[in-house]
Write a structure and sequence with these properties.
Blueprint: H1 12-17, E1 30-31, E2 44-51, E3 55-62, E4 81-92, E5 104-111, E6 118-119, E7 122-123, E8 129-137, E9 146-148, E10 163-165, E11 170-173, E12 176-182, H2 183-186, E13 197-203, E14 212-219, E15 231-232
Parallel strand pairs: 2-15
Antiparallel strand pairs: 1-2, 2-3, 3-12, 4-5, 4-13, 5-8, 6-7, 8-9, 8-10, 11-12, 13-14
C-alpha cells in the first residue's frame, strides 16, 4: 500500500455513520500494493475472510515475516505500545458481549509486553494472541482519529477500554496471520463487511482519555471503508 496520508482514510466519524458503504463489496481478498515505506512485517498484501460450515477464517498476508517484530517493553503500562494485526468489521459491539452500539467491533492479533494478561494459567503479554476490541472516533488520536472505546477493565489492573482476550485458534508465521472464529458466534457471514489493518496501539502516558489511540500503519482497502465480504467455501 502507498505511504499513508491523513486524507487517505475515511474519518472515524464517517466510519461509524456509513459502515460498509464506502466501496464496492467483492467476495474476494482485499489486495494492497507493496510499500517500501512500511515495515515489511506490517505491509499488507491481502486480507480476506472465508467461511465453511463451522468456521470463519480471518486471514492476512504481509510482504515480510508476520510477527517478526515485537513491541519494545518499557517496564510500565502508561506510555507503552502494542503491535496488532486487525480486522475491523461492521458488526455491532454487542455481538461478542460488549455493551451494544458502542462502535466498530474489531478482531485482532496483538502483542503487548507491558500489559500482563493471564488466561487459563498462561501468561500472554508479549506472545501474540487474539483479542476483540471496540473502536470509535478519538478526536485527539492524530490524523486518523481512532481510539479504543473506554469502559470497565476486562481484568484487574487492565486498561479501562472495551477489549477482551479471544480464546480462538490462530497461526502466525512466514507471511501470514490467521484467526478462526466459530461461525455461530458471528451469525450470518453474508452480513459481514470487513477490512484489514496493521497498527500500533499507543497507551496514554497518563492513562487518561483517550486511553489507547490507534496509529495506523497500513489498511488493505486503502481507505478503511470495510469493503470486504466473505468468500464461501
Amino acid at each position: 500500500m502507498r505511504f499513508m496520508r491523513a486524507n487517505g482514510f475515511v474519518t472515524g466519524a464517517a466510519l461509524l455513520t456509513g459502515l460498509g458503504l464506502g466501496g464496492v463489496a467483492l467476495a474476494d481478498a482485499l489486495t494492497s500494493p507493496d510499500s517500501q515505506a512500511i515495515d515489511p512485517s506490517f505491509d499488507i498484501r491481502t486480507a480476506e475472510v472465508t467461511a465453511d460450515a463451522e468456521t470463519l477464517r480471518f486471514r492476512m498476508t504481509v510482504r515480510g515475516a508476520a510477527g517478526a517484530r515485537l513491541p519494545m517493553p518499557t517496564g510500565q503500562l502508561a506510555g507503552s505500545e502494542m503491535l496488532a494485526y486487525l480486522w475491523p468489521t461492521n458488526f455491532d459491539s454487542g455481538i461478542v458481549g460488549f455493551p451494544p452500539r458502542r462502535g466498530l467491533l474489531v478482531l485482532g492479533l496483538v502483542s503487548h509486553p507491558d500489559l500482563v494478561e493471564t488466561v487459563g494459567g498462561k501468561q500472554l503479554s508479549s506472545n501474540w494472541h487474539p483479542h476483540w476490541f471496540v473502536v470509535s472516533p478519538g478526536k485527539s488520536c492524530g490524523p486518523f482519529g481512532l481510539a479504543m472505546e473506554e469502559g470497565p477493565p476486562a481484568t484487574p489492573g487492565g486498561l479501562p477500554v472495551l477489549t477482551q482476550v479471544a480464546n480462538l485458534p490462530f497461526t502466525i508465521g512466514n507471511s501470514q496471520v490467521e484467526i478462526d472464529v466459530p461461525r455461530k458466534l458471528l451469525g450470518d457471514p453474508g452480513r459481514l463487511r470487513y477490512d484489514g489493518m496493521t497498527a500500533t496501539l499507543l497507551v496514554s502516558a497518563t492513562l487518561s482519555s483517550p486511553v489507547v489511540c490507534l496509529r495506523v500503519t497500513d489498511v488493505a482497502s486503502g481507505r478503511l471503508t470495510l469493503t470486504g465480504t466473505v468468500t464461501q467455501q
